[in-house]
Amino acid sequence: MSRLQVVSGKGGTGKTTVAAALALALATEGKRTLLVEVEGRQGIAQLFETEALPYEERKIAVASGGGEVYALAIDAERALLDYLQMFYKLGGAGRALKKLGAIDFATTIAPGVRDVLLTGKACEAVRRRDRQGRYVYDYVVMDAPPTGRITRFLNVNDEVAGLARIGPIHNQAQAVMRVLKSAETAVHLVTLLEEMPVQETADGVAELRGAALPVGNVIVNMVRPHLLDEETVRDASNGRRESITKALTAAGIGGAAKLVTPLLEQAAEHAQRVELEREQRRTLNALDLPAYELPLLSEGIDLAGLYGLAKELRKQGAGS
Predict the structure, then answer these.
(1) In a 3-state reduction of DSSP, which class is residue 61?
(2) Pairing state of beta strands 291-295 and 215-223?
(3) pLDDT tens, 268-314?
(4) How large a percentage of the chain has pLDDT more than 90?
(5) pLDDT over 70 for what percent of the chain?
(6) 28 Cβ neighbours under 8 A, 6+ residues apart
(7) What Å distances lie between residue 295 and 126, 192, 201, 300, 301, CA to CA?
(8) What gap in Å lies between CA 292 and CA 314, rounded to an integer?
(9) Which of 4, 34, 48, 131 could crosslink 137 through cysteines, CB 3.0-4.6 Å?
């Protein structure tokens, strides 16, 4: 299994939640996972009900079987200071540049460099080894930008080509791309069974493949149960209204006759949604990618729900 797991998805699909659940699922049986955030939203801290993440790797959870999940909120400015120290040994001079606003200017005026810094920090964690030569982290999970920006974000080599054709920045970009375009990386796309997220997922898969970036799984989030199919609704509305009324009355529900029509309307809406979801599944199946499915948590997501989603991912093969 790829050691760098990148999670993207259209806004509103729950990609941060899925990334966190995936990190927990991968950190089973003593494994160690680093969960990386690159957008500065502190979504990971909120999910794990902890304080805002600093620019350091911090343990935030223990997974099933004693595994550990660490988290890191990557800050582009701090990453650039690290970079300047690593390649140019600027030390205090780098901090002085920050005070003058030069660091912020550099990460804003050259977004390609910013992406190299963000992806480079994650790739460094993938390659890092301890003194015994073992990987420090078994897996690194990145909560990445949305689907509309993911290919450009990951394709940093092209982004910096016009900025630096030689030198440390160019070399860093090439080192990052060697990881991102290798079997060590998988880019997962989170979607809902709705037309716009599914279409954006299909477009994202095409862009990633066009850029020779490794596409992993489609993760269908917030899947609602199918309670009725269209045939059942048709049977109920054609000649069975009286029997439905009698059944409701027998169950002790007052005014059953008035309830039949709105109940059938709701049932028809449900059947229509089921058919629309079937259409979206056909579109996703045409992508020819493995898929995971996660249920809708009707009461919202909390820490217990997050562990439940991780368990569901393990059941479907994540981490195995």
Answers:
(1) strand
(2) parallel
(3) 777 778 889 999 999 999 999 999 999 999 888 899 999 999 999 99
(4) 52
(5) 79
(6) 63, 64, 65, 67, 314, 319
(7) 30, 11, 19, 11, 11
(8) 10
(9) 34
